[in-house]
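We were asked to recover a plausible sequence for a given structure. The inputs and outputs are reproduced exactly as logged, with field labels preserved.

PROBLEM: sequence recovery
POSITIONS: 444
GIVEN STRUCTURE:
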């Protein structure tokens, strides 16, 4: 078995192994007793021989630390990842580490990233001492023109240290925008996964707030947008070290950040909504025409699905399962090097080298969704698996939408009924079928 140093941060519970073929996984992410009746039922079960187990994960490394990523991807696509190792496996799926690196090389990368995170966090602490204090901000601390606001009702129990603001000097726009976002982050943090026992601990809420605050400081081009909290929360829960959670979230945002970009006239997610419309038009023209007649041709009713990757449609455990299988299916072995080549978060999710010459052995290191894209030469950056998953949801409601939807409110209501009633495994299977059908329809 690999050591703690090799596999990343482990607590006692993260050393446990399968206790049964279909063990109850909700116990790893306990729900508050008063919330039990209000959360969707978990469908996912860890299954011996299918789910990536700690034993199988440890065995996938060579003696010096090279990872058999092809074998890992196959197992994840068959049955997800056991909760005890989700965090450390996600780091590879999201491109934090190169599977071809050694244990020593990854430890060096991890240490450098932790130091970089501390540097960014120190910059934030100089602007407000609430960062890193174990508290969060839920009320504005400055006005729109950058003047300090004292609010004794704020969740922070100590007076704000507004740094340069106390001297009433002119702040640059980056600092003002960041400070204006802090209470918005706080308001969302206190609502994030609030059914989980994990967030009864104020220190855990503060950890999530700190990670989001530092990220927004680092990626000031996008700023903070509601929904980022839903993406970040699982990383904070799964990865014990705050800096590791930050970098896992940062990599996830490489894929998603353009969805969060918005201005006065448009939202970034509209690009993917446009792709969704193209897909439905190609595979189900009758449904597309019906939605257009209902003035739903822009597919705005699917915004939530794509913005937060179906977090609201599934139980917490099922949502994690959905994400990791999607990421395994989308996996591109070039992802680490592509991200490392540019420190700019704008670097694309799936920028590709010349993949026309990818050999059969290399193809095994791609997820099945991305492999199909490489084989067919389809390089539409907007066509993430999540878009095809949204298409699969629409297709499951095809008959009802055609028969019952007389307006957009009906469409929203019908789609809203999927919450807690979707089977993630079946939905992903249908998404792949739609992907194959769409690529076939797009051939000249």
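RECOVERED SEQUENCE:
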């Amino acid at each position: 078995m690999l050591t703690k140093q090799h596999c990343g941060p482990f607590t006692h519970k993260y050393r446990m192994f399968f206790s049964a073929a279909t063990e109850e996984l909700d116990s790893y992410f306990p729900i508050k007793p008063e919330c039990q009746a209000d959360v969707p039922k978990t469908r996912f079960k860890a299954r011996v021989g299918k789910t990536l187990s700690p034993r199988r994960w440890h065995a996938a490394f060579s003696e010096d630390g090279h990872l058999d990523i092809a074998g890992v991807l196959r197992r994840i696509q068959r049955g997800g990842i056991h909760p005890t190792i989700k965090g450390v496996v996600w780091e590879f799926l999201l491109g934090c580490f190169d599977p071809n690196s050694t244990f020593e090389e990854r430890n060096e990368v991890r240490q450098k990233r932790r130091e970089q995170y501390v540097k960014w966090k120190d910059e934030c602490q100089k602007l407000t001492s609430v960062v890193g204090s174990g508290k969060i901000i839920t009320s504005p601390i400055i006005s729109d023109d950058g003047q300090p606001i004292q609010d004794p009702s704020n969740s922070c129990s100590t007076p704000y240290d507004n740094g340069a603001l106390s001297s009433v000097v002119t702040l640059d726009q980056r600092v003002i925008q960041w400070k204006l976002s802090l209470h918005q982050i706080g308001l969302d943090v206190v609502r994030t996964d609030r059914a989980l026992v994990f967030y009864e601990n104020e220190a855990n809420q503060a950890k999530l707030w700190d990670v989001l605050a530092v990220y927004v400081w680092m990626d000031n081009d996008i700023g903070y947008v509601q929904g980022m909290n839903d993406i970040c929360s699982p990383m904070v829960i799964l990865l014990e070290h705050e800096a590791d959670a930050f970098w896992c979230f940062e990599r996830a945002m490489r894929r998603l950040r353009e969805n969060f970009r918005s201005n006065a006239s448009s939202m970034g997610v509209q690009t993917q909504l446009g792709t969704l419309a193209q897909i439905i038009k190609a595979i189900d023209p009758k449904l597309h025409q019906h939605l257009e007649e209902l003035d739903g041709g822009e597919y705005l009713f699917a915004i939530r699905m794509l913005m937060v990757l179906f977090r609201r449609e599934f139980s917490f455990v099922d949502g994690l399962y959905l994400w990791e299988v999607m990421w395994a299916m989308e996996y591109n072995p070039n992802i680490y090097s592509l991200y490392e080549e540019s420190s700019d978060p704008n670097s694309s999710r799936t920028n590709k080298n010349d993949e026309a010459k990818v050999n059969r052995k290399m193809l095994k290191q791609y997820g099945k969704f991305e492999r199909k894209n490489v084989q067919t030469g389809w390089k539409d950056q907007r066509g993430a698996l999540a878009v095809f998953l949204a298409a699969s949801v629409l297709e499951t409601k095809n008959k009802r939408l055609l028969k019952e939807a007389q307006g957009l409110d009906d469409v929203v209501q019908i789609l809203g009924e999927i919450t807690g009633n979707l089977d993630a495994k079946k939905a992903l299977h249908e998404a792949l079928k739609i992907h194959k059908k769409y690529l076939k329809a797009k051939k000249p």
